[in-house]
Amino acid sequence: MSWIVKLLLNAVALIIAAYLLPGVEVENFYDAVIVAIVLAILNALVKPLLIIVTIPITILTLGLFLFCINAIVLLIADNLVDGFDVDGLWWALLLSLVMSILNSIFGLNDNSNRSKKR
């Protein structure tokens, strides 16, 4: 799947999650695409650093602290994009959970395509 399709599906997942969660607001689809791009950049640059710094607590919580790291990344994106608003850490945690579920439904978390040769 091309990265543009993944970004658009991630934006659709964000719109659906914002519809389901009253503490999350996205003004329009354009802002959702911008948030998806910002999240992709933050996931590539900031998230690995946060994971390395928090390895001990991630191990103690059996990986559940990764949802907190996702929530922190979402709150950083909230500060960077004007048309995207998350009302706090708990809403960011719920948004992280809903986005993970929706991305799994859309097949964005599927790594089976990476193992196949093209």
What does this protein look like?
- With 118 residues, the protein is mainly α.
- It has one domain (3-109).
- It has six helices and two strands; from the N terminus they run H-E-H-H-H-E-H-H.
- It has helices at 3-20, 29-53, 55-60, 65-80, 89-106, 112-115; strands at residues 24-26, 84-86.
- It has a two-stranded antiparallel ribbon with strand order 1-2.
- It is globular and about 40 Å long.
- The N and C termini lie close together (12 Å).
- The model has no long low-confidence stretch (mean pLDDT 89).
What is shown here, in short?
The protein is mainly alpha-helical.
Largest sheet: 2 strands, antiparallel
Form type = globular
Strand content: 5-15%
Q: Roughly what percent helix?
A: over 70%
- In total, the number of domains comes to 1
SSE pattern, N- to C-terminal? HEHHHEHH
The unreliable regions are none
Number of strands: 2
Radius of gyration: 14 Å
